[in-house]
Every structure is written in C-alpha cells, then in structure tokens.
Amino acid sequence: MKGDKNKFQYRINEQIRVREVRIVGEDIESTVMPTRQALQLAEEKGVDLVEISPNAQPPVCRLIEYSKFIYQQKKKQKEMKAKQVKIELKEIRFGPQTAEADYNFKLKHAVEFLNDGNKVKAYVFFKGRSIVFKEQGEVLLLRFANDLEEIAKVESMPVLEGKRMSIILAPKKAGQPKKSQQKMDAEKAKANAEAKAKANAEVAKPTPVVEATEEAEENEQE
Description:
Elements: E1 20-25, E2 28-34, H1 35-45, E3 48-53, E4 60-64, H2 66-83, E5 89-94, H3 100-115, E6 119-125, H4 134-147, E7 152-161, E8 164-171, H5 181-204, H6 214-221
Parallel strand pairs: 1-4, 5-6
Antiparallel strand pairs: 1-2, 3-4, 6-8, 7-8
C-alpha cells in the first residue's frame, strides 16, 4: 500500500496506546476492554485492531484485516461520490428583442436544465446601441423567472454588468411544485364557473308532474 493516502489515516495494533478501547466487528458484541486484551483477541482471530473512532470515549476499534478495511473505505467513498449530484450553471442568452418563438424554445431548455438539478443563468446581451433597451431586457428576464416559478426560485435578481444583464435561477427542492398566483386564480375561476353552471342546470330542470292513479281518482269521487 505504498503511496496510499489512507495508509496513515488510522492507527492499528501497537500504534493504539490508550488504556482501553471499545471493540466492534463481525460476530462481535460491542464491549469495552483493556487495549492489551483487545490486541490479544485480534491476534487470536488473525486480524488487526483498527482504530476507527479516535475521539470517542473510549476510542472505538474494529477487529478486521487492515487491507480489507481500507478496501471497504475506498469502496464506500466511491459510492458516495457517485451519488453526489453535480450541479452545473447553464447559460441561456437572449437579445433585448427576442422573438416569441425563440423565447419559448429557450424556456423549454431552461425547464430541462432545472429538472436535471442544474442552475440557470439567463442573460440579455446588449450589442452596440441596443443598451437603450435595458429596461426591456429586465422585463424579459423577470417574465422568464415568472414562467419558471413552479420549478425554480430566483437566486439573483436581474443585474447589469457591462453589456450583460443576467438573472440566476435555482431548482426548487423536490416535492409538490408551488402553483403560481395566476394559475391558482384560473383554477378558482374555473371552479366557480362550473359551480354556477351546475346551479343554473338545477334551476332549469322542469318540475315533475305526478299523475293521479285510478285509485286516487276513485277516492276523490267518493
């Protein structure tokens, strides 16, 4: 294990010089014992005494072959690294007078980036004298943020830096997406319209006419 950065991370066997330790391991009940006794037990089992928690009181040691222990640690670190989500900052460029079709195309890409867990930096580039349209660019960026508010939160409001005005959006945490006020108002209006239509339909129903039976007619004649 020459050159292994893990080689000197853990004390083993005679390097452990505390008076007593807590031992753990496969098929071993966790218990506190004198370090000398723990070393004897490790020798009997043909394994090493590896200090895995030096700051515990007393320190925790594991009975295991040191090479096997290092292999397990490397494997665990590799698995943890694989599970880590790499967040990237994706950039989307607009012009101050972006056409509607181009806007919707870039909005679709932003949705994909955010759903993948990435941040989005949208910016308007003002070329030459187009800087006079900076207010128009700010409106575009705020519209962009509003159209994405169900899946993204604004991390940085529009700011002008040189010839670029940018806004940064970050994906919201997983869970039920928050509905926009516009969408909630639309759903409320739809529900009210349906309730009103149902009420009108009830009023418009004809009153049922109950025909008298022959027996009832006879009773009336009597």
